[in-house]
Specification:
Strand content: 5-15%
Distance between the termini: 36 Å
Largest sheet: 4 strands, antiparallel
Structural class: alpha+beta
Helix content: 40-55%
Radius of gyration: 28 Å
Number of strands: 4
Strand order of the largest sheet: 1-2-3-4
Order of helices and strands: HHHHHHHEEEEH
Amino acid sequence: MTAADSLRTIALRWTDLDDALGGASAPVWPPAGRMTDYLRSLEELDAEEQEAERHRALALRTLERDPAQLGERPIPIRLRIHDTMRVVHASLLACADAVAETVQRQPIRPPAPRRAAVARTRAERIAWQDHARQVELAQKDAADPRRWKWTGTRPTAPYTALWLYARVQGASGPFRPLAEREERLITSVAREACGRVEAALDIAARRAGLSHPCPDCGGQLEMYGGAGALPVARCRACGRTWSGQAAAA
């Protein structure tokens, strides 16, 4: 996936993250269900994941108010989605800040102010008109909406992704073309951010190692799935497979 593809995916999928923020819990990975029951003796939760889940649950409880209190209760949010949105937004902003520092042209310097006077000759009128055009050009260039801004309200994640997308695509504006170093930076940040978004929404193909060995040969078990596909567990040593379809049968 190219940087442009990753940035476009982030921009298009951000509304899905917004919707998922207050929605039902996302599927866990490896996926729960009848196949998990079928392979229950082969799996155990990783200690680190258990600790992370404990912290998430504790944080969620702190966000909720006692039902006995008066007033509206805040809507619980899915912390994994929230964390994904926060991290992706921050990484995109940092990338855009760094890229803009090197590729964004400085605003056109306005001409020195002139003392008010009445133009008495044709040459003086031309000079005043030219001065006014230069001032207008400098003002428009400084206010160009395509310019990246480091101050004020920070842009949203979709806007930032599309701004970086425009730089990758070489869109016109007060910018010079990207150098190889800047292209590598955008590509790295975009791919990682896109991967986080797809993982949070469970729309990407995924692979995970299972902690218990194969019951036949003791080899390493891996589970494949995601992106709407049925999960499949396969032994890397003997090749035996377990599928969600087979488990459901």
